[in-house]
Amino acid sequence: MQNFDGSQLRLAAGYDLTYHHSLEMVFTDVAYLACPTQFQNDRFREPDLDERALVRRHVGDEPPDRCL
User: Fold this and answer.
1) Are 24 and 11 a contacting pair, CB within 8 Å?
2) C-alpha neighbours within 13 Å on the C-beta side of residue 12
């Protein structure tokens, strides 16, 4: 994770993040975030029922399908 300001999440990827990164993804209007600050071999997928329930408890609403 490169930056999270409470609404916008910016992820950076590359072989050596010390000096530069080769890929950057930005998510906007982030309502809930639960992930480590650094991870490897990540994948995006649909949330399972337990993860959807967890988001619902924290946010108070059903998470959209694009949630991960």
Assistant:
1) yes
2) 14
pLDDT in tens, 30-68: 877 777 777 777 777 778 889 888 888 888 876 665 554
**CA max distance for the chain:** 39
Its pTM stands at: 0.57
Euclidean distance between CA atoms 68 and 33, whole angstroms: 9
Question: For the chain, how big is the Rg over CA atoms in Å?
Answer: 13
**Is the distance from CB of 18 to CB of 12 less than 8 angstroms?**
no
Residues 6+ apart with CB under 8 A from 11: 1, 2, 24, 25, 26, 27
